[in-house]
Amino acid sequence: MTKKISFLFICLVAFALGYSINNIAISDTAPKIAVVDVQKIVTNSSQVKQLKTAQEKKILEMQKTIEQAQNEISKEKDPAKVTALEEKYRNQINNQKVALDKEYNDKLTKIDSDIRAIVIEKAKSLNYSLVLPKNMVFYGGDDITDVIAKDIK
């Protein structure tokens, strides 16, 4: 009987000791949380503005190609040549569009990576342990959008 009581006592002491060590291991400091208005940062980014301007110029070039194709096709009377011209310009315009979309997406991905790197760097320097997009948070967190916007080109 005394062996059972001593075994039970040892188990209770071990449980209490383990529980108290767990409480010591958990820090009482709350994580420091920041929020960032990503849309504002992207909208104000000069890199994004330059990308949009370049994209608009390339779209205008594509529209000129389309107009040229329409003019050339409308002047042609031979149905076989019309079909050949249509196919030629369709392929040319599709290739331009694919190249334009790929270039735009690649540049946008690079800009996104740059912005993320700046946010991470600034958050670490300000000792934040978590940064969330502002539109995903209903309440709380320090808004560091303006601090980060200064570092974004």
Describe the structure.
The chain is mainly alpha-helical. The protein has one domain. The protein contains 5 helices and 3 strands; from the N terminus they run αβαααββα. It has a 3-stranded parallel beta sheet. Helix 2 (38-44) packs parallel to helix 5 (145-151) and helix 3 (46-75) packs antiparallel against helix 4. The longest helix has 47 residues, at 79-125. The mean pLDDT is 83.
By helix and strand content, what is the structural category? mainly alpha
Please list the strands of the largest sheet in the order they lie side by side. Answer: 2-1-3
Number of helices: 5
> Which descriptor suits the 3D outline?
elongated
Overall pLDDT metric: 83
| Helicity level | over 70%
The portion of residues forming beta strands comes to: 5-15%
**Strand element count:** 3
Instruction: Please state the CA-atom Rg, rounded to the nearest Å.
Output: 31 Å
Instruction: Give the low-pLDDT segments.
Output: none
Please give the domain count.
1
End-to-end distance, in Å? 77 Å
**Main β-sheet: number of strands, strand sense, barrel status?**
3 strands, parallel
Topology as a string of helices (H) and strands (E): HEHHHEEH
